[in-house]
Amino acid sequence: LHTGKQLDGIWHTSIIVHKDEFFYGSGGISSCAPGGTLLGPPDSVVDLGNTEVTEEIFLEYLSSLGESMFRGESYNLFEHNCNTFSNEVKIPSYITDLPAEVLATPFGQALRPLLDSIQIQPPGGNTFSRHNGQS
Question: Regarding the domain with residue range 15-127, which homologous superfamily does it belong to in the CATH classification?
């Protein structure tokens, strides 16, 4: 199938903060040990530097995101996905812009009804909430 655009992939992204990996899928915000999903080790890692935010404050922030913008039922493969989440907390635009670029092609438009119906949740993570006793 040809989209008319060179695609290296549609990327899953996550963010590692305070020694845990956090990501968003149709199950909401989840966490695991770094590289701990069944997707295996990452193809690339971008060092975003250090944060001055404490783990407690960061987890409160994630909890509020999980109860508002990033509930599981809000997930959409093209418009509100793992990259949207990582961008909120911060990844490069060449990754976050890719779904819109795919949708701009005739092939992307033709596949949209099918792809909108797909639930995507990388296996191997734990659903994140401040109530589960640990991050």
Answer: PPPDE domains (3.90.1720.30)
